[in-house]
Specification:
The complex is a heterodimer of chains A (316) and B (120). By secondary structure, chain A is mainly α. Helices cover 70% and strands 3% of the residues of chain A. Classes of the chains: A mainly alpha (316), B mainly alpha (120).
C-alpha cells in the first residue's frame, strides 16, 4: 500500500502531460524511422493510460449509483465515505472518459470509411504497389494507403523531372507503402482523438513518416542531395502550377525542413531520448495500475455480499 | 550505384515511357535510366511490362519502340482525380510527396536549392 488512489491519479496525469509536451520533441530528436516506431506505440500507451485512469476514477462515483451498487453488491454509502476522490472530480472523469472513448470511436470509424473509399477507388487501377500514371498536366504525386496501395504520379510531374529525380520520387513513395506508413499515422491519430493533448505528437509523427520515406529514398538512390533537390523542385513546380478549383490540403509536411535535413549528414541513433520515453511509460503504467488496484480495494471494502463478485474493473 | 529491386526498375521504366513524348527504343530507355544497366535487363523488363499489358510496342525500322499504355487512363484519371480533389479529410489518408508551400517556404526552398547547387 505505497501510494493512495489520489496520489497515483495525480502521478498518472503528470506523466501524461509530460509525454504530451515531450512527444513532439522526442519525435524530432530521434532518427525518423525509430521516432515513428517508438513514439506511436508510446502515444497509444499514454492515451490508453489516460482512459484507464479516468475510468477507474469515474467508477468511484458510478459505483455509487443505485443500480450499479445493487448489481455489484456493495454499499453506496460506505463507498461515498471511503472514496478519496472528490465527487466533482469523479463526475468530471466520467464525462471525460465517455468523451475520450467516443472521440476515438468516431475517429476510428471515419478513418476506416475513408480507407475503404480510397481502396474502392483503387480497384481495377494497376496492381498493388504499382505505379499509376495520371493523364494530367498538373504536377502531383502521392501514395494510397496500405502495403497494397498504389503510387500515383501525374504525367505532368514525370515530364518535369529527369530520370534520377523520378527514381528518387518513386523510392520515396515505395517506402510509404513498404513500411505501412498509413497504419502508423492511423494509430497516432486515434491516440490523439482519445487524448487531444497528443495532437501535436500526431502532427510530429506526420513529419517523421515523411522524413522516414525521404531517408529510405536517399539510401535507395545513394544520394541525399538528389532526394533534396527532387523534393524542392517538385514543391516549387506544384506551387507554380495553376490550382484547379479546390485549394489543396497541406499534407506532405514541412518541405523546407525535410530538404534541410537531407542536405545534412544522415541522422544518428540516440539513446538518451529512448530512456526518457521508457521511464515515462513505466511510471504511467505503474500509476494506472495503482489507481485501478486502489479502486478495487475500495469496492472490496464497501462490499456487502460475496467478495468474489465485488472485484470490478473500470469501464464496466 | 545501388542495385534496384525488380519492381522498382519496372516502375522507373514505366515512368520514363510515360514522360516521353514519343515511343522509346530499349537503347533510349537504357540511356535515360543510367548506363550501369545491361541492355538485356532493359529488354527483359520491357518484355515483362508488355506481357502485363502496361506498355505497347511498335516497329521502328529494325527495332521495337515502346510506349506506356494509356487506355485505362480516362477511368483512372477520374477515380484518382476525385481522391486528389476531395477535401482535407480524404487527402489525409493519402501520402502526398510534398505539401503545399507558403510564401516563406518558397523563398526558403529557392535559397536552399541554390545553396545545394553551388556546393556541387
Amino acid at each position: 500500500m505505497s501510494a493512495g488512489m489520489g496520489t497515483a491519479t495525480v502521478v498518472a496525469c503528470l506523466v501524461i502531460v509530460a509525454f504530451a509536451v515531450a512527444g513532439p520533441r522526442l519525435a524530432r530528436r530521434l532518427p525518423p524511422a525509430a521516432a515513428t516506431r517508438v513514439v506511436v506505440p508510446a502515444s497509444l500507451v499514454v492515451a490508453a493510460t489516460g482512459v484507464w485512469v479516468l475510468g477507474a476514477v469515474a467508477f468511484t462515483w458510478v459505483a455509487q449509483l443505485g443500480p450499479v451498487s445493487r448489481y455489484g453488491q456493495w454499499s453506496a454509502e460506505q463507498l461515498r465515505d471511503d472514496s478519496p476522490i472528490p465527487r466533482v472530480i469523479a463526475i468530471g472523469a466520467t464525462v471525460l472518459a465517455v468523451l475520450s472513448v467516443g472521440r476515438a470511436a468516431a475517429c476510428g470509424t471515419r478513418r476506416l470509411r475513408l480507407l475503404l473509399a480510397v481502396r474502392q477507388s483503387c480497384r481495377g487501377v494497376g496492381v498493388p504497389g504499382s505505379l499509376v500514371v495520371l493523364d494530367n498536366d498538373r504536377p502531383d504525386a502521392f501514395a494510397t494507403p496500405g502495403a497494397r496501395g498504389r503510387i500515383v504520379v501525374t504525367r505532368g510531374l514525370l515530364r518535369a523531372l529527369n530520370a534520377d529525380e523520378r527514381r528518387a520520387l518513386l523510392a520515396h513513395e515505395t517506402a510509404h507503402l513498404a513500411h505501412r506508413h498509413a497504419c502508423w499515422l492511423l494509430v497516432a491519430e486515434l491516440a490523439a482523438a482519445a487524448n487531444p493533448m497528443l495532437t501535436p505528437t500526431a502532427r510530429a509523427v506526420r513529419h517523421t513518416v515523411e522524413r522516414w520515406a525521404d531517408e529510405d529514398a536517399a539510401r535507395a538512390v545513394a544520394d541525399r542531395r538528389l532526394v533534396a533537390r527532387t523534393l524542392a523542385r517538385t514543391a516549387l513546380l506544384i506551387r507554380a502550377a495553376p490550382v484547379a478549383g479546390v485549394p489543396l490540403p497541406a499534407v506532405g509536411g514541412d518541405v523546407p525542413g525535410r530538404v534541410r535535413a537531407l542536405l545534412e549528414p544522415p541522422p544518428r541513433q540516440r539513446v538518451a531520448p529512448l530512456f526518457v520515453l521508457v521511464a515515462l511509460l513505466v511510471v504511467a503504467t505503474m500509476a494506472a495500475g495503482t489507481v485501478q488496484r486502489r479502486g478495487d480495494e475500495l469496492l472490496d471494502h464497501a462490499g456487502t455480499g460475496n467478495p468474489a463478485v465485488s472485484h470490478h474493473r473500470p469501464g464496466h | 550505384m545501388v542495385r534496384r529491386p525488380r519492381g522498382t526498375l519496372e516502375q522507373e521504366v514505366v515512368a520514363a515511357l510515360a514522360a516521353s513524348p514519343a515511343p522509346m527504343t530499349p537503347a533510349q530507355v537504357r540511356d535515360q535510366l543510367g548506363g550501369d544497366l545491361a541492355y538485356t535487363t532493359v529488354m527483359t523488363v520491357l518484355a515483362r511490362l508488355s506481357d502485363k499489358g502496361l506498355v505497347t510496342r511498335e516497329r521502328v525500322g529494325r527495332a521495337y519502340a515502346y510506349s506506356a499504355v494509356r487506355d485505362e487512363a480516362e477511368v483512372t484519371a477520374r477515380q484518382m482525380q476525385r481522391l486528389l480533389d476531395a477535401g482535407d479529410d480524404r487527402a489525409a489518408v493519402l501520402s502526398r510527396f510534398v505539401g503545399v508551400l507558403s510564401d516563406d517556404d518558397e523563398h526558403l526552398l529557392i535559397e536552399l536549392l541554390r545553396h545545394a547547387e553551388e556546393e556541387r
